[in-house]
């Protein structure tokens, strides 16, 4: 008797689970069929929005891959993670005031770009900063070739 | 989704699986398994070979993380495996077994399709693992300056880099551009790998039919496919669950011979190089395995501990040059009095949250209720020492979670983000215990007869 009840419970669980699993797969396949042939960039536009993707493209074209940028966020916590991800492998320095130490202040003064992450799926902002080598500071590694 | 992206993603899975299929030929307990079970262990071993060899080569010898090194690391074991091929065991399957396999395959197709079509959208994948991979690839070394100079903003810079290195291997081999995510199928494939290892463990512990029911019960869990930490994400929890579970199967359900110990040790090494908790899980697995230790089998245990120690040494050496920042660093804040106080004083916060997340329908479909019912009804299965050890092993990740919640400064948020993943990490041993209990309940039915025990 007990084993029948357990077997019944297991059968009900599996029936529900398999139905849910197959439905999830069917939904994904349907979605995949709709996006067949789209490139990675087109998929990004479709999911993240044209405004955000266009802004990221602009930032990528402005900031060379071997040059760092300062990164700051507005009100929405965590949104900098998304912007940083889309700008990889460019390196980010978190723009917090005041800089934690003198060395950090030296390096920040030599970073040309400030990126401000605004909100999820909203265009990040970019500002070009005046670059200086403060007195007593060595030139930053990314400026040695200049 | 373009055909090129699909091919590169599937090529990435092959890049991991092929060296693994070669390597299993070196391990007697694995090479005689039927192909599907062998494939599960192969995928895990392949990941360790690819990521581990690139890690050691780059850190110890300065080998650049570029295509020639990646192809050499992938192809040499694959070719070795072809040369050392051994005779195979072929098993017959009944119709309902085939139907179950088709259902499981169809369910696994969902997260794979999702991973191939949608850009990466999960929190930890974008915050930690993929950025680490991108930086390592850009600099061509595991000792990247972006990690070693503390002015760069990196979240969890000391997290173990096995998965990011595998990601580098796939992206580099197939020449991925800025928007190409050719590594997504690499993560999605850990779901079938975990299910295949679970099937093998359950079959050893409770017989083929019970193993199929158990594997099906786990395969349908939505969290494993679509949760934050599941197959569509780029988290390291699913691989960690695979490594930990595979090591336990080989340590607790396999004969105590050196080759089994070595294979288990490789899985423990994989766990250590995959995630911070991996080192704690490896220690727990070795402690549990030591309960089977006697004088005649000391080489078995040494073979299991050796690769784990080597992995830990490699990780420690790599971390030594990386200043920690943007990290909770639980070990630094952990003190025994604080831990004990927090573990009890925070019970009113921890217990309701644990119950809420454990029994959440959208993630677990009531699996843990079924688990408890079957475990209680089949409690006599726990008379077996292997079942007891597996249950304990399955609870270790939850205990680690509890310890973190006891000392964390943001306990409720942390529980929501992590509790499901601790359950996932212990999934294989817990599900094998489930299989043992289920087999006990159904034992009087002729078709659910117990398997031959491998426990000595």
Question: Can you tag this structure with a few keywords?
Answer:
heterodimer; A: 146 residues; alpha/beta; 4-stranded mixed sheet; 5 helices; elongated; B: 456 residues; mainly alpha; 24 helices; 72% helix; globular
List the helices and strands and how they pair.
The complex is a heterodimer of chains A (146) and B (456).
Chain A: H1 2-34, H2 40-48, H3 50-62, E1 69-73, H4 79-86, E2 92-94, H5 102-108, E3 113-117, E4 125-128
Parallel strand pairs in A: 1-2, 1-3
Antiparallel strand pairs in A: 3-4
Helix pairs in contact in A: 2-3
Chain B: H1 3-23, H2 28-31, H3 35-61, H4 67-83, H5 95-117, H6 123-139, H7 145-148, H8 162-173, H9 184-188, H10 190-206, H11 208-219, H12 222-226, H13 237-252, H14 258-274, H15 276-290, H16 298-319, H17 330-333, H18 336-345, H19 347-358, H20 361-364, H21 367-377, H22 385-407, H23 411-425, H24 427-442
Describe this structure in words.
Chain A has 146 residues and is of the alpha/beta class. Chain A has a domain at 40-138. In chain A, 48% of the residues lie in helices and 12% in strands. A 4-stranded mixed sheet of chain A has the order 2-1-3-4. In chain A, helix 2 crosses helix 3 (50-62). The longest helix of chain A has 33 residues, at 2-34. Chain A is elongated and about 85 Å long. The relative contact order of chain A is 0.12. The N and C termini of chain B lie far apart (51 Å). Chain B is built from 24 helices and no strands. Chain B has one domain (3-442). The mean pLDDT of chain B is 91. The longest helix of chain B is centred in the N-terminal third of the chain and has 27 residues, at 35-61. Chain B has helices at 3-23, 28-31, 35-61, 67-83, 95-117, 123-139, 145-148, 162-173, 184-188, 190-206, 208-219, 222-226, 237-252, 258-274, 276-290, 298-319, 330-333, 336-345, 347-358, 361-364, 367-377, 385-407, 411-425, 427-442.
């Amino acid at each position: 008797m007990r084993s029948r009840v357990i077997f019944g419970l297991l059968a009900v669980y599996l029936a529900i689970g398999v139905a849910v699993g197959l439905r999830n797969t069917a939904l994904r396949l349907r979605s995949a069929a709709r996006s067949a042939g789209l490139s990675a960039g087109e998929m990004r536009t479709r999911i993240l929005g044209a405004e955000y993707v266009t802004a990221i493209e602009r930032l990528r074209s402005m900031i060379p891959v071997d040059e760092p940028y300062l990164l700051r966020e507005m009100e929405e916590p965590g949104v900098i993670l998304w912007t940083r991800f889309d700008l990889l492998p460019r390196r980010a320095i978190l723009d917090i005031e005041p800089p934690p130490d003198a060395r950090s202040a030296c390096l920040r003064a030599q970073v040309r770009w400030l990126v401000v992450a605004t909100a999820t799926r909203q265009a990040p902002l970019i500002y070009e900063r005046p670059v200086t080598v403060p007195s007593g500071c060595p030139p930053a590694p990314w400026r040695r070739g200049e | 989704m373009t055909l090129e992206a699909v091919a590169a993603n599937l090529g990435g899975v092959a890049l991991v699986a092929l060296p693994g299929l070669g390597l299993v030929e070196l391990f007697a307990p694995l090479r005689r398994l039927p192909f599907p079970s062998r494939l599960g262990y192969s995928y895990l071993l392949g990941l360790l070979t690819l990521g581990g060899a690139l890690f050691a080569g780059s850190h110890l010898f300065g080998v650049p993380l570029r295509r020639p090194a990646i192809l050499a690391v992938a192809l040499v074991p694959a070719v070795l495996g072809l040369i050392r091929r051994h005779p195979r065991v072929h098993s017959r399957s009944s119709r309902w077994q085939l139907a179950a396999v088709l259902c499981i395959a169809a369910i696994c197709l969902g997260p794979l399709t999702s991973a191939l079509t949608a850009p990466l959208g999960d929190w930890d994948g974008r915050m930690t693992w993929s950025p680490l991979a991108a930086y390592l690839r850009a600099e061509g070394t595991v000792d990247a300056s972006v990690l070693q100079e503390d002015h760069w903003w990196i979240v969890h810079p000391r997290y173990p880099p096995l998965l990011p290195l595998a990601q580098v291997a796939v992206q580099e081999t197939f020449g991925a551009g800025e928007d190409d995510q050719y590594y997504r199928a690499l993560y999605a494939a850990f779901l079938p790998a975990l299910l295949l290892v679970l099937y093998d463990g359950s079959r050893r512990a409770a017989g083929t039919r019970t193993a199929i029911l158990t594997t099906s019960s786990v395969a349908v869990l939505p969290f494993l496919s679509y949760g934050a930490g599941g197959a569509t994400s780029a988290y390291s929890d699913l691989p960690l669950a695979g490594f930990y579970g595979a090591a336990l199967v080989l340590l607790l359900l396999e004969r105590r011979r050196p080759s089994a110990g070595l294979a288990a040790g490789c899985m423990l090494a994989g766990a250590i190089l995959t995630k911070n908790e991996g080192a704690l899980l490896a220690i727990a697995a070795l402690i549990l395995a030591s309960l089977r230790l006697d004088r005649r089998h000391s080489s078995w245990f040494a073979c299991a501990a050796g690769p784990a120690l080597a992995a830990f040494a490699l990780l420690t050496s790599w971390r030594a040059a990386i200043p920690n920042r943007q990290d909770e660093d639980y070990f630094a804040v952990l003190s025994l009095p604080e831990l004990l106080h927090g573990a009890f004083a925070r019970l009113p916060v921890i217990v309701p949250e644990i119950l809420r997340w454990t029994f959440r329908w959208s993630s677990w479909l009531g699996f843990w209720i079924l688990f408890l019912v079957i475990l209680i009804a089949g409690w006599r299965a726990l008379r077996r020492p292997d079942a007891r050890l597996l249950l304990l092993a399955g609870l270790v990740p939850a205990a680690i979670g509890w310890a973190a919640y006891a000392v964390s400064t943001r306990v409720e948020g942390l529980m929501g983000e992590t509790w499901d993943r601790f359950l996932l990490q212990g999934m294989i041993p817990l599900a094998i215990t489930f299989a043992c209990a289920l087999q006990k309940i159904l034992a009087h039915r002729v078709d659910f007869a117990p398997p031959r025990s491998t426990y000595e």
